[in-house]
Amino acid sequence: MASQSLPSNYHKVESPEDLQAKLSAALDKVSVLYFRTDWAEPCKTMDGVMLELAKRYEDVLFLSVEAEALPDISESFEVDAVPYFILLRGHTLLTRLSGAQPSVLSAALKSHASKPSALSASSQQPLAAKTIYQPDEKASGAASASGTVAAGGQGDVEESDEELAARCDKLMKQSDVVLFMKGDRETPRCGFSQKIVGILDSQKIDYSTFDILQDEGVRQKLKEINEWPTFPQLIIKGEFVGGLDVVKEMEESGELQEMLQG
Length: 262
Ligand SMILES: N[C@@H](CCC(=O)N[C@@H](CS)C(=O)NCC(=O)O)C(=O)O
Fold this sequence. Notes:
Structural class: alpha/beta
Distance between the termini: 49 Å
Strand order of the largest sheet: 1-3-2-4-5-6
Helix content: 25-40%
Number of strands: 10
CATH topology of the largest domain: Glutaredoxin
Largest sheet: 6 strands, mixed
Bound molecules: glutathione
CATH architecture of the largest domain: 3-Layer(aba) Sandwich
Number of domains: 2
Shape: elongated
Low-confidence stretches: 117-124, 126-154
CATH class of the largest domain: Alpha Beta
CATH superfamily of the largest domain: Glutaredoxin
């Protein structure tokens, strides 16, 4: 969408300095940072939602950030998937939301945009020290991850470490080829996951997926079990194979197909 047609309170962030300047010029305002990418399907929905909200809340600053093109900003806000939303009042974190949930975003905005600034800000957390647009900000604890993590798959029942490990083992064996990724096959929520899905699909491989964004326990436990700190993680016949870079190399050398036939 051409920037001329954006509402006057909606801007595309160009750089960390640009973000700093925009937030600093609106210290008493609520801002919504919207982390997006062009390829992520849910962002298309949220592009429209953001525009509608910008028209409805003229006093709120709406800032869209290209999550992959501006990795310094994404990392400083600990954005681990798209779409992702951070609500701020000035430099104070109000809340964070992961995923395309128009009604949740709208409700969060309604709640925060209607509160007087002094009252609201006093009960909120300051941003994490990592935040790049305010390098001399005092360390004050990591930003809350509320809203980013879904239930652990076990309802309210507490899961022991052994039970979690057993559940991971079962998940790794749910089919011959299992991809642990961010999002799912139709709607990947991270560029690395999107690329590995592309490789597996192009090779016409039959595989199931598990969205680790929906299960923080599995997300952390798999890193430990497979001794691999990131996602995607590809499992073939119950054995950990690798992440995107490894799978890409294996595809190029023909090893991936060989492994599936063997
Ligand atoms: N080069 C890696 C890239 C994967 C990567 O860096 N993933 C990050 C960002 S999506 C990750 O999973 N971080 C840990 C986490 O989010 O829990 C690969 O080959 O798979």
